[in-house]
Design brief:
This protein has 1 helix and 15 strands. By secondary structure, the chain is mostly beta strands. It has a 15-stranded antiparallel beta sheet that branches. A hairpin with a 2-residue loop joins strand 3 and strand 4.
Length: 274
């Protein structure tokens, strides 16, 4: 049960939401911001709910930015923690990604804390050599379980980097088929991006938020049991913050809603009246 509790931008990260009624859906198109950017130090916290039960929280953080040989890299991390006292759920996981300037993964680490020890999974994406280096094992005491490589004919997304890729492309008008490397398997995720703006409401804000929409499909089971159809809304501005999500997991549908944020100069954009 606990393995099915889900993270999202993440991966994906957190990129879905239920569609509002048609009367809240304007026909004007989103003016795509070419200057979208991630902000170092940004922290976004989400509440994860299954039906009427609040399962826990997700926090995603942009940790740093560096430029190396003319290439820009961002490092991000996601923390997933279930609330204490939730029946059958005791989940504490950490996922970290390093992204290149096209927002594809160059490094991924997943940490899963069990009762007795913590396991790790590392993917090192070496696109120049067209390989992915895979390492899996246990921390404290160290124990290496897997040390192998596989081919990398494309650039890949991991469970967390795909959230940031979606953010930077939100508001476009296109469909993409994205190569993913999840659970040591090469998979694909289809995402449909839409340019129209609609309104989304959340408990943390007392007005409707202007958002752009995407949806898509995973024909495989990803981390935390994420699978199948998803929808999502991002703020219709150059921050493209994931606002609210609805995803399918093995046990059913979950909702992921923005609870709080730390991003200098950012306020959720107000949806204009029709």
């Amino acid at each position: 049960m606990k393995r099915t509790f889900i993270f999202l931008l993440l991966s994906a990260l957190v990129f879905t939401a239920f569609r509002e009624s048609d009367e809240n859906y304007l026909s004007f198109r989103y003016n795509f911001y070419s200057d979208k950017h991630l902000q170092v130090g940004e922290e976004l916290t989400y509440v994860v709910s299954y039906s009427f039960i609040k399962l826990g929280e997700i926090k995603i953080v942009v940790r740093n930015k560096r430029v190396e040989n003319g290439q820009t890299y961002y490092s991000a991390i996601g923390y997933i923690d279930s609330y204490s006292g939730v029946p059958f759920v005791d989940l504490h996981q950490i996922y970290a990604s390093t992204l290149n300037s096209e927002y594809y993964s160059v490094f991924f680490r997943g940490l899963v804390r069990d009762k007795d020890y913590t396991t790790y999974t590392d993917y090192i994406f070496n696109y120049k050599r067209s390989i992915i280096h895979i390492k899996k094992g246990k921390l404290q005491p160290p124990e290496l379980w897997t040390d192998s490589t596989t081919s990398a004919p494309y650039e890949y997304q991991d469970g967390l980097s795909m959230l940031y890729y979606a953010r930077m492309h939100s508001g476009e008008n296109e469909t993409v088929n994205i190569p993913c490397f999840v659970k040591e398997k090469k998979e694909n995720t289809v995402i449909n991006f839409y340019p129209h703006v609609t309104s989304v409401t959340i408990d943390a804000v007392n007005y409707p938020i202007a958002c752009t929409h995407l949806d898509g499909n995973m024909n495989f089971i990803s981390i935390f049991g994420l699978t199948g159809y998803f929808e999502g809304w991002f703020s219709a501005d150059d921050a493209a913050v994931p606002i609210v999500a609805k995803m399918k997991v093995i046990i059913g549908n979950i909702r992921v809603e923005l609870k709080s944020w730390k991003r200098d100069g950012w306020t959720p954009p107000r949806y204009p009246k029709s």
